[in-house]
Amino acid sequence: MIPGKLIMFFAAMSLFAAACASSAETPRRIEITAKRFSYEPDVITLKRGEPVVLVMHSSDVTHGIKVDELNLKSEDIKKGKDTEIRFTPEKAGHFIGRCAHFCGKGHGSMTLQIDILP
Length: 118
Known about the structure:
Elements: H1 2-25, E1 28-35, E2 38-40, E3 43-47, E4 52-58, E5 63-67, E6 72-77, E7 83-87, E8 93-98, E9 111-117
């Protein structure tokens, strides 16, 4: 009986370990909507080394996002279409993303704050 219970225990532990490993490989998805002249949410918090996918949408005209310090850029966030930006933050800090596609008079004030924790 005991060997059977040990086999069941190790089988359960193997399944648990596999489930943990697959969830660690799945990047966190963050939905962000761009609209004249803001992002929603306008502040996101990430963890250094954690893979993420920014799922960008536009509710009006074509927008973009550019964060030079993080080497992030997308100029084609179009209305009705998802734009996915995959990345793994490599450094902690406070970063400001700006719209990378001219979208009107308030374009210069359109920002996304990205805080990356150590």
